[in-house]
Design brief:
The complex is a heterodimer of chains A (319) and B (506). With 319 residues, chain A is an all-alpha fold. Chain A contains 15 helices and no strands. The mean pLDDT of chain A is 91.
Amino acid sequence: MSTAARASRLPVRPISARTRRQRMLGLLFLLPWIIGFLAFQLLPILFTVFLSFTNYSGSREFAFENFDFVGIENYQRLTQDPDVLPSMLVTLKFALIGIPLGLVVPLGLAVLVNSKRLIGSNVFRTLFYLPTVIPAVAGTIIFGGVLNAQSGWLNLALKAIGIADPPRWFTDPTWAGFALNLLAIWGVGNGMIILLASLQGVPTEIYEAAVVDGANAARRFFSITVPMISPVIFYNLTIGLITAFQFFVPALLIAGVNGDPQKSLLFFPMHFYRTAFPLSQLGYGSVLALVIFVATMAATAVLFFFGQRMVYYASGETS
Amino acid sequence: MKTRLNALLGSVVVASFILAACGPAATPAPAATSAPAATVAPTEPAAQAATDTPAAAAPDAPTAVPSPTIPPPILTGGDGCDPAATKITWFIGLGAGSNADVVPLEKAWVDKFNKSQKEACLIMNVVYNTGSNSYDALRALIAGGNAPDIVGPVGKAGRASFQGAWADVSPLAKAAGVDLSKYDPKLLEFTKDEDVLVGLPFALFPSFIYYNKKLFDEAKLPYPPQKVGELYNGKPWDLANFQELAMKLTVDKDGNDATSANFDPKNITQFGFFEQWTDARGIGAFFDGGIPFDAASKTAVIPDSYKAAWKWYYDGVWKYRFMPNADYQNSDQFNKGNLFASGNVAMSWVHTWYTCCFDNSKISWDIAIMPSVNGKVTAKLHGDTFAILKDSKKQDIAFKVLSQMVVSNELAVMYGGMPAVAADRPAFFAEKDKAAAPNKINWSVAEAMLTYPDLPNHEAWLPNLAKANNLLGAFRTSMDQTANLNLDEAIAKLKSDLDAAYKEAK
């Protein structure tokens, strides 16, 4: 007899009035979140789906008679829109460079500031984390100045060391994407702190045993450290993927709604934004929003399917 | 007992959360003006309100997040009106007029007006414009059958967003006995949208050359002409000589000017000229007025004058180097886009409103006339007026109010526009002179340039305006950013993209 069948035959104990009250109380405390979720997340998502079947323009009054239903016309338009594929590629290219950078750089910094040989490690921890507390908009504007081809200090430094023709970071399509990848490194402080906490949780006995066995530093890092902190690396990877697929604000501030130069910074979320708001095509814009939603979900699902197999859980819980 | 107390406390906390979440926002908007929000930014600074366009139409602009401190809409109640007076609603928000410092002055003017006569009771509806919210508010009012009677001050770009919504004031003027012949025919032409006179000339913003006297003195070059037809250094003030002057005023870090063989284009410290804060149509207007749309065929037609102006501009940036590319424009040295204010640009082509945006008393400056191109002088023009909506049910009374508004020197000064009525201008320029002191500005240049407007105007309506403006903005950005642009191909692509945008319009 299966466990489930046995369980189904067990007598059901009546719930006491106190337990019921406690459950009700718990639900009551959850109510604000439930209301918030329904009103500000689920409802907008459902409304986006609804809008995607209309040609509603943001410049018309928000009234039912202005929602003209166009069936799947907006979805058909997706296949003819010349900016869809290039903007997807811009996002993908950014993700392919940005996600590994977003893992390696904070990991390297975490290892560095975790080192016992580093003098003043708390100072470095603070310094590396500090950019994270600066608002993204302010940070981006500062970065725009730093990477200005004429007066930015990066190019001034490059000229000082003899590079006569340094990159035109944000005006040359060859460099613009990479420059934004550089900008994204600005915010690795969060990842660094999480990885640092994880590094400090690795039992020192394991390292001591490895040293006794003759393992060198590299071997200890790849055979002990990385597996032991792999759940946190996987977490950072997942967050990095979602962030890369939704990368928007810095690109908009630097490149404007058209993703200049020459659309090399027209990320897919920017294409959505430009369509839905500046151009007021909320119907088709909703389709683009749903594409972002589905693509992010699909990529995260794929990541979980393949990536989590490589994650080591000390408790023995593996997927 | 304890459990009940917990339950009670829990309920109170939850209820407070819900009430807090559902409570009114800090700056609630009345239903009449609430509209779907959109996030946009003006191309030009807020002070340049006269020519504000909805963000949707703004080219290559950084996007501003709506501020939580946006002033709430204001609706006055018509205090002091005669009980029998007809209520006339005045919508303010598409251009100058909704700034916090101006609203009390407008209110005072309205109060005075309401007490001065018994026929009309003027009611203000002010919606502060950030991005496109005031445009959305007006759309909502029109769509809801509550169209205001008078809208303004509003420029051509603002009116273009409501193309077809404006009443023809010619018959209203005739009925009210207003003599239109007192206005310069060119200004009347400028106040027409698609051949319909939508208002009376009121506050004008002609364009001209702002020049930095200090940089001319350093280069030992005479100042540019201040009268049409005047020679410059014994030569005609035409495009070729203007370009030569601009090149002489463009200097690299070693002090070589752009006419020198040793000139280093990668290390320019001073530019001779810049066409500041305008889009591709504005650049096109340097050569002549035009419109990239053929109303008969409803297709995109790029005027030859535009093509030539764009080529001249592009070569000026990338070949002759007397105008800055995007890297220089956004650099610290050139004040991140507000170039003339940096003190490192010798000449800049902007409108009267630009006095808002640099320290008038610190820079040694004056203004000069536009050079002629192919024998013709063109000075692109911005202008604000008050217009009456077609949906207004009281157009005749509204026109009587409007005709008082356009002759009010108080309102003209309030909005910073040059009065269309010549007699009112000395007072206006006296105010400007105070701000510019110790500089003594030759304002006759501004008056002279008023007679050379770009017709058709560079802010005229186009089908699918938001998209068309977006394409034109992107085109200018591409000229500013791209060193080896095939301009003919880029223009052909722009034409085809505009065509597609026009076809999308319904």
